[in-house]
Amino acid sequence: MNVHVSGSDVGARTLAIVSELKGLEGPLLPILHEIQAEFGFVPQESLPVIARELNLSRAEVHGVVTFYHDYRDHPTGRHVLKLCRAEACQSMGGNELAERVKALLGIDFHQTTLDGAVTLEPIYCLGLCSCAPAAMLDGEVHGRVDADLAKELVAEARR
Amino acid sequence: MTVRLYVPRDAAALALGADRVAKAFSREAEARGLDITIVRNGSRGMHWLEPLVEVETAEGRIAYGPVRPSDVPGLLDAGLLDGKAHPLCLGGTEEIPFLKNQTRLTFARCGVIDPVSLEDYKTHGGLRGLEKAIAMAPADIVKEVTDSGLRGRGGAGFPTGIKWKTVLDAPGDQKYIVCNADEGDSGTFADRMIMEGDPFVLIEGMAIAGLATGATKGYVYTRSEYPHAVAVMNEAVAIARAAGMLGPSVLGSGRAFDMEIRVGAGAYVCGEETALLNSLEGKRGIVRAKPPLPALQGFLGRPTVVNNVISLASVPIVMDKGAAYYRDFGMGRSRGTIPIQIAGNVQHGGLYETAFGLTLGEIVDTIGGGTASGRPVRAVQVGGPLGAYFPRALFDTPFDYEAFAAKDGLIGHAGITVFDDTVDMLKQARFAMEFCAVESCGKCTPCRIGSTRGVETADKIARGIEPEKNRELLADLCNTMKFGSLCALGGFTPYPVMSAMTHFPEDFSPAPMVEAAE
């Protein structure tokens, strides 16, 4: 993830992504996923390029980006820790786990630690409801997250 | 001779360390000079035993679990490769009661085969349904599916065949099959398991749907929260295309069908079919008013079948074994089998496919074995975040669409989340409203505003502020949301709220607020 990119560079890389995907039926979500994979978030500078290439208004593109929880307008920390907040995880102490992790990291959901190491995000269901509570650290899934495993995950993310 | 060892790649197994177990086996085997082949299969659905390792022996497959990486040397010492005894040995996999007592039709191959081996798929009865469908007229395929009694497994329970007939009869040059794999309900993972454990059955089901309705293009819309399922599906689609199962001439039939996997972006409401279609088109996931039905004006305004993963994955067996075979399972108007997902605070969590008709109590107490915490079961939520909470008093309700509706509940996507007696039902009701407020698409007022007012009202009850008046207000809000919302998000959020309030009134009568001393 390179967050130190200039506006014109973002434009050029966005254009390359859009050109590759605009032939799809309903290309906007695949394009936004690619852009987020490229930059780590969806830069504001990308939006006019997407709008122009797909013949949409900037408002429409903005509307889509802000509708979906996944798209971010700013970079995350080096690691992203997602904790499942849904009912099955609640039934196995998910709320207590969330409080514990927040305390360990010293941040709330949607925040990043001051050293830029970890961003903590809520997630509503990883489909691991039979081995709750569940978490995802940088795309890797973890089930039955107890106090020890939570500590381990936080330590791993801190690195 | 090489010994085949099965270590699942299902996300639930991975979450419990399956990758590390697989690595430990290959490392140990290399060090000991053992000739093993590790197959990364799907999950058998016994998630309390994951990672569940199986070895193929002359006597069939023998299971060991749950296996930790540190158990591996000891297991090999004990003779795991010959299926020998060990404290973790569970005997023949198929003989484990949880598995033995199931009727696995849709999930017959899940956990058995290598998910990305088309050869394995064919050896285990795959493609027979598609081959039969190719030899049939579209209307006859639709009739077979209609006669099977298969109903939408996503939650609404609409007859699949009737939906297909509407699309078949609709005029249009381009029609679509859209698979709703946006499995956002907490307590459900059947779609994920099929996509990770037997992706070809979904591809086959979609191809049959294409042949039946004249649709030549299909999309699977799944979740960004399911990266493993996305990877397996993409791999399987590429394999199917290379093998001629997808493409301009499906299995040499001269009829075209191809498909793509699309990934959502974390919006729960996109599991609603019209919001899903908007999202697939690249728009905000806003619910559309019906009519027009998606069957007539769906994706890009064209006739579109929108079916759940399990509905489509159940089609190949219907075509292979015939409508009557499938229809003979089940009760009343709920025909065939249903993959029940047992989750939450439960001892034996996992996936249990069975004919409709078991009682809720049998599922939770007998099959699920009660809570994981060992405390009494107090409530179970059936059907995800929009499903009702059932108390023990209703455990005699049979698992059937109509029977659940009669008790003011729904079976939804057949997920059951178990809670022990530490649960605070007022908190759960508040969460249902909060979730609805977070996930509402914002199009209709009852859902958008009602859910926020619902959270506030629940908070007032919790703080003991005019509890009686606020309980009435909450019930009134639920009534407005139920009958005034455009889709099931606002329309069904009242189920968990009202069921919590009706069956667990004691949690809604907190001690009156004591005036704080000045």
From TrEMBL, chain A:
Residues spanning the signal sequence: none
UniProt xrefs under Gene3D superfamilies: Glutaredoxin, NADH-quinone oxidoreductase subunit E
Keyword line: 2Fe-2S, Iron, Iron-sulfur, Metal-binding
InterPro entries attached to this UniProt entry: NADP_DH_HndA-like (IPR028431), NuoE-like (IPR002023), NuoE_N (IPR041921), Thioredoxin-like_sf (IPR036249)
Cofactors demanded by this protein: [2Fe-2S] cluster
Residues binding [2Fe-2S] cluster, per UniProt: C84, C89, C125, C129
Family the entry assigns: Belongs to the complex I 24 kDa subunit family.
One Gene Ontology molecular-function label: oxidoreductase activity
Cofactor binding note of this UniProt entry: Binds 1 [2Fe-2S] cluster.
CDD domains named among the record's database cross-references: TRX_Fd_NuoE_FDH_gamma
Name the UniProt record assigns to this protein: Formate dehydrogenase gamma subunit
SUPFAM superfamilies: Thioredoxin-like
Pfam family name, one: 2Fe-2S_thioredx
Automatic annotation (TrEMBL), chain B:
Lineage: Bacteria, Pseudomonadati, Pseudomonadota, Alphaproteobacteria, Hyphomicrobiales
Function in brief: NDH-1 shuttles electrons from NADH, via FMN and iron-sulfur (Fe-S) centers, to quinones in the respiratory chain. The immediate electron acceptor for the enzyme in this species is believed to be ubiquinone. Couples the redox reaction to proton translocation (for every two electrons transferred, four hydrogen ions are translocated across the cytoplasmic membrane), and thus conserves the redox energy in a proton gradient.
Annotated Pfam families: Complex1_51K, NADH_4Fe-4S
Keywords for this protein: 4Fe-4S, Iron, Iron-sulfur, Metal-binding
Gene Ontology MF: a single term: metal ion binding
Top-level taxon of the source organism: Bacteria
Membrane found in the keyword field: no
Family indicated by similarity: Belongs to the complex I 51 kDa subunit family.
Protein name as catalogued: Formate dehydrogenase beta subunit
Cofactors named for this entry: FMN; [4Fe-4S] cluster
Tagged with keyword Ribonucleoprotein: no
InterPro entries xref list: NADH-UbQ_OxRdtase_51kDa_CS, Nuo51_FMN-bd, Nuo51_FMN-bd_sf, Nuop51_4Fe4S-bd, Nuop51_4Fe4S-bd_sf, Thioredoxin-like_sf
Native organism: Shinella granuli
Transmembrane regions listed in the UniProt entry: none
NADH-ubiquinone oxidoreductase 51kDa subunit iron-sulphur binding domain mapped to chain residues: 426-471
